[in-house]
Every structure is written in C-alpha cells, then in structure tokens.
Design brief:
CATH superfamily: Electron Transport, Fmn-binding Protein, Chain A
Strand order of the largest sheet: 3-2-6-9-10-5-4
EC number: 1.-.-.-
Low-confidence stretches: none
CATH architecture: Roll
Number of domains: 1
Oligomer: single chain
Radius of gyration: 17 Å
Keywords: Oxidoreductase
Structural class: mainly beta
InterPro entries: Flavin_Rdtase-like_dom, NADH-dep_flavin_reductase, Split_barrel_FMN-bd
Shape: globular
Organism: Streptomyces lancefieldiae
GO molecular function, one term: oxidoreductase activity
Length: about 180
C-alpha cells in the first residue's frame, strides 16, 4: 500500500512543547470510546485502548496508538494483524482487567473471558462488545514513545448491545444510545 508522508512546519525551526502532565490533564477532558485490542495465534494478547479512531472508508482503515514498551506493541508487530472489540457500557470489569499490567499474559489472560477467534485473524473478539473489527496491519509510524498502527479492516461486525463505554476525566462513563 502506498503512503505519503508530509512534514508540516519543517521550515519553522524548533518550537516549544507542552508539559506531558499538562497534556494528560487536558486530554482527560476529551471523552473517548473504549476498546480492547487483541492479537491471536502464538502472539495472543489483549490490551485496553482508547487511542483508536477510523482513518478511511475507502479503503476501510482504522488506527490505534500503542506504547512501544507495551507487550501489545510487539504482539501487533509480530502478528501483522489485530482485532478490535468496541466495548459495551456493562463491560467495565473486562476493560479494567485488560488494562491491569499485573494480569497473566498469553492464553491465560483469556481463560475467564468469553471470546471468539476472528475468522480472518484469529484475534480474540470479546463476547458482548458493541462491535468488532479485524484488521491487517498496513503501516506503522513511530512517534515519541508510541507507534501509530494503521490497519486495513478486513471484517466489521456490529453486535446487539446498546450503550457504549466512554472514558472521561479519569472515569468510565455510559454513553446512552438514542431510543434506549
């Protein structure tokens, strides 16, 4: 897949950067959806993520940002694909589990979670989620302490749940669906 990189502002010279703590405080005011990223096979792993968004409808693509020190970074890089479970409001306990750095790794982390392997990637797709995506890794960009993984969506499915799980101001919130 062709990609074009454009450096914006390269001719302006050095600029000041915000304090990381200030950025964290400001970004806490931005409500985000909550997902669990996953990889299957010999690199089976799951991780809670809210740095996720759609990129393109044609071709269908999404992105997620993962810290380079995270186990998920190596898992996505090695597997070459990933799954995304978009979490339902009642799944806060599952989200907290996959955010816990002390949880078991490998297959054991999925032993008490209901899931189905994705048809295309084998990535664990969590039961009860609002929706699921399976993606082939198209491109990875390194920036700061994270990588931006762009995945071409090979399957997108919607579940029967109603309310979404949001993360806002350091707490989980319920996004109520219209008509629910």
């Amino acid at each position: 897949m062709d990609s074009v990189t454009t450096e914006v502002g390269a001719d302006r010279g050095p600029t000041a950067v915000a304090d990381p703590a200030a950025l964290r405080e400001v970004m806490a005011r931005f409500a985000t959806g909550v997902t669990v990223l996953s990889t299957g096979g010999e690199h089976i792993h799951g991780m809670t993520a809210n740095a996720f968004t759609s990129v393109s409808l044609d071709p269908p693509a999404v992105l997620c940002c993962v810290g380079r020190s995270a186990v998920m970074h190596e898992a996505i890089t090695a597997a070459g694909h990933f799954g995304v479970s978009i979490m339902e409001a009642t799944q806060e306990d599952v989200v907290r589990f996959f955010a816990d750095k002390h949880r078991p790794l490998g297959p054991e982390q999925f032993s008490r979670i209901d899931w189905t392997p994705g048809r295309h990637t084998g990535a664990p797709l969590l039961t009860g989620a609002l929706a699921w995506l399976e993606c082939d890794l198209s491109t990875a960009y390194s920036f700061g302490d994270h990588s931006i993984f762009v995945g071409q969506v090979v399957e997108a499915r919607r579940g029967s749940g109603h309310d979404g799980l949001l993360f806002f101001d350091g707490t989980f919130q319920r996004a109520v669906a219209r008509g629910a």
